[in-house]
Amino acid sequence: MKKYFIKTYGCQMNQADSLLVSSILNNAGFERTENINEAEIILILTCAVREHAEKRALGEIFSLSSLKKKKRCLLGILGCMAKSLKEKISGGCLKENFCDFLIGPDNYRQLPEVIEKKLKNCDQQVLTIIEDEKEETYSDFLPAFNNSEIESFVTIMRGCNNFCSYCIVPYVRGRERTRPFPTILKEIDFLLNKGSKIITLLGQNVLGWKNYDENNQFLEFSDLLAIILEKFPSLRFLHFLTSHPKDLTFNLIEKIAKLMKKGRLIKEIHLPLQSGSDRILKLMNRKYTAKEYYEKIKYLKELVPEVSITTDLIVGFPSETEEDYEATVEMVKKIQFNFAYMFKYSERPYTTANNLFPKVSEEVKQERLEKLIKIQNEITKRKNEEMINKHYYIIVTKKQNGESWGRAENNKLVVVKKELTLGEEYLVKILKIDGWTPIGEVIKN
Description:
Strand content: 15-25%
Strand order of the largest sheet: 2-1-3-4-5-6
Shape: globular
Number of helices: 12
Domain TRAM: 385-444
Enzyme class: transferase
CATH architecture of the largest domain: Alpha-Beta Horseshoe
Distance between the termini: 44 Å
CATH superfamily of the largest domain: tm_1862 like domain
Keywords: 4Fe-4S, Iron, Iron-sulfur, Metal-binding, S-adenosyl-L-methionine, Transferase
CATH class of the largest domain: Alpha Beta
Helix content: 25-40%
Domain MTTase N-terminal: 2-120
């Protein structure tokens, strides 16, 4: 039985794809190993959303190229970088034999065939399969499962139709496709029977999910949430990523808030703002204003005061002025995000923002990013400290060195300084914050 090793970079979608790839290969008679030295096939599942992630992956790929030659194993590149790497090979920027095959996100079904072909004929030519499959959702595959996984991802849609001017996703992951409703329920049932307690629904824009049930009844995203929570009482926490502000209507906010207040839908929403400047938001093709974003967050907080709001922010977008940047800073101060992922703008292939001018210098981008990080870190610290002396239900997801980690109802990971039972639910009191981590003690299980 041929053994394969997977190294995964990037977002939760890639983590879910890693288990999908394992399922496809396991079904074809291959065996996954966590020891790279045992592997006859090495797979790198790549991310191309930001330049930094791409450079990290490239560094790993080049270091593994020498291992490939030394131990004569196959090296395959999967995922979002496959398309750009193919073009770099064609343009002469990369040696053609640095890997054995390139497979795009819509073409994982062909992996077993590609591997068998390369094992039989290990020539210098790179096999590339990077085609947009407009109907592909892999809904007939159940993910490979590790029995210690208390938290699991379920992909409910693939691709994206938003075409934000800075974003490569629609070009490398294709157009938006909704996964059929019955197959989502089937996968959740499978994961719960294997021991999962926490499910996160994944998509580039989950709020846009629409489908039909077995009676041809039209369903929206809020219906999907409600049905999952009703159908699976053993599911302790349900979560979802990622949401687009333009699709978070006031009606949807009310429905989500109602489910959050029942206690099993995690009281957190990740809602990327990107910029607080309306001019920049328009250039980004985000399809909302800063005021519209703020009013939606304000309404959600009115309905669920304890809700946690996290976001993404980009500084140094082409033509961003000091005034534009300060508008972002003011929004951050006004909204008081619990946490933010903050980045300098980086050019991505195929995106329209590449053609926007003037460019912001690296020095200015770095200065703005550092200032924003400092402001947000102070807010995050204060938000975390608000948890002290409060009680939260947690599900234990990990144990190590006499300590336990548990996912709380606000999506924070809480550490308890004793070994608890994996997968069990406990009520904890937060004693202090260590760095960014809440430290708690058990009140009852």
